[in-house]
Each structure stands twice: as structure tokens, then as C-alpha cells.
Amino acid sequence: MRGKVLRIGHMGYTASINAMTNAIVALAKALNDLGYHVKIGDAIEAFLGGVGA
């Protein structure tokens, strides 16, 4: 099976870190509802590490 990619677009420098963090939380909750086990804290930690926050 091939990997899947999900891209979340944002407004570049005009987007706030809070708005992007909220999008990650919403995505993690949606994936959990669909049966994928996602730890929200791990998702946020990975996101913040990726953006250098």
C-alpha cells in the first residue's frame, strides 16, 4: 500500500501559531473519530518542533 499525504494550507506569515495549532488538534480529533489512534499531545509536539516554536 502506498503512503498517503495530507496537506494543510495556511496563510503564510499572516497565520498565527495558535490558528495552525488549532488545525492540528482538529485533524488529530477527526483521525481519532475515524479509528486512527493519534495522541494529540504528540501531534502538537511534532508540529511545534517542525515550525521551530
What does this structure look like?
With 53 residues, the chain is mainly α. The chain has helices spanning 17-33, 40-51. It starts with 16 loop residues before the first helix and ends with a helix. The mean pLDDT is 85.
Walk me through the topology.
Blueprint: H1 17-33, H2 40-51
Features:
53 residues; mainly alpha; globular; single chain; 2 helices
Low-confidence runs:
none
Helix- and strand-based class?
Answer: mainly alpha
Helix tally equals 2
In this structure, how is the largest beta sheet organized? none
Helix content: 40-55%
Radius of gyration, taken over Cα atoms and rounded to an integer in Å:
12 Å
Could you give the count of β-strands? 0
Summarize model confidence as the mean pLDDT.
Answer: 85
Order of SSEs: HH
Distance between the termini: 34 Å
Tell me the fraction of residues in β-strands, as a range. Answer: under 5%
Coarse shape: globular
